[in-house]
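User: I'm putting together notes for a lab meeting next week and I want to include a structural view of one of the chains we've been expressing. I don't have a solved structure, so I'd like a prediction I can at least talk through. The sequence is below, exactly as it appears in our construct file.
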Amino acid sequence: MSLWRVILAILFPPLSVIDKGCGSFLIVFLLTLAGWIPGIIAALIILNKN
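Assistant: Thanks for the context. Below is the predicted structure for the 50-residue chain, given as C-alpha cells.
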C-alpha cells in the first residue's frame, strides 16, 4: 500500500480501489455515500489485503 493510495483513499475512497474490481468499487462507493468515514475504512481494508 503506497502513500499515494492512502492519500487517495482519504480524499476519494472509491477512486483508490478502482483497480481492485467492480465489486470492491461498488461496496466502497455505497459506503462513501452512506458516510465518508465508512468509505475510508473500507478502502483502507481493501487496499491492505494482498
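A couple of points you could mention at the meeting. The two ends are 9 Å apart (CA to CA). The chain has one domain: 3-48.

User: Perfect, that's what I needed.
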